[in-house]
Design goal:
Elements lengths: L1 H15 L2 E7 L26 E8 L3 E8 L9 H6 L9 E10 L15 E3 L3 E9 L3 H11 L7 E2 L2 E6 L2 E7 L10 E8 L40 E2 L7 H5 L10 E3 L2 E2 L5 E2 L5 E7 L2 E4 L12 E4 L3 E8 L4 E5 L13 E4 L2 E2 L1
Parallel strand pairs: 5-12, 6-7
Antiparallel strand pairs: 1-2, 2-3, 3-9, 4-6, 4-10, 8-9, 10-11, 10-13, 14-21, 15-16, 15-20, 16-19, 17-18, 17-20, 18-19
Length: 346
Amino acid sequence: MKYIQIFLILLFFSILNSKTILDLKDNTFDDYGNGKVIYPDNPIFKKGIFDITEFKIEENPNSYKFKIIVRTKINKIKNTGLLQSNNINDDFYLPLVQLYLVEKDDRNIGLKKLLPGVNASLENNYSWNKVIVFTSIPSDFKSSLSSINHHLIQNVIFPKNIKYYKNSITGIVSKNRIKLDKETGYSLIMLGHNFSNLRNNVYVIPVRSVSGQYNFGGGEQNILKRYNSNIIDLICPPENSQEKMLSSYNQNLKKYAKIIPYFKNKQNYVKLDKYFEIKEISGYKIIINAGSKDNLKSGDELIIDDEFIAVIKDVFPTLSIAEILNHKEMKNINKEMKIRKLTKEN
């Protein structure tokens, strides 16, 4: 009886000293990646288990509690033969969630590319410093990641007391491991959890052209070009589009999709506007198939292929002339690249 009383006192104290620091709602029925992703054929992939509907962070005196809510109840996989053949026990769940803690990085020196298998990177203005991986096989995941990316493993955190209950995933991380403040950005992504570790995928289910028993469909038909994103759902800043972000990859130029994080205090989101084409290249200048009718004006900054910056010098109704800021980068520009207006919100 005494121990029960102590437990109840500690529980009450914990509740009293905890506060919700983030509570984000996400669109439902958008568990289709860039709009084309199709669920695997096997019935264990229950529709909705990859659909994030809400994300919460609760701050306690010594830790943070993370909670991811999905549309449908998450069932434990009981196909023991399949799991045992891949050295996995029965406590296996299909959703694989990664939370990247992001900061603004105008110098572009931080970590951009997300973990192996995701096939995405952060937009140029941002970098990540820690990633929290919600997986039911943390030791296997850590071992696999360590074997191919030694320099990243120190930035990967696996929550304690991770639980899958009904349609939610929760985990606790000590404040000794991470620090969250008003400047922290969040990129929460949902992936499919693979049974076996493929060297370049690290337990991430790939998105292929056609869905199969254990892989998603709707991706590129050319299997030799694997730059399409394997993200099924993500927390998206309200003024940006999940479909646009996850479709921003370029197979020919080997460019991953660019992800824009969520900031609670809404600081300088980079918006994915309409893309334009390069008509001509001359010296340090480019002629663009877009002009005043597309709301472009002299002085506007453009980003080319999400990498190179140019400034508009002259604008006509259907054409604009822009100059590359760094002339040394001109040799990297070609007419196959896409351009969009670089806009910021404060």
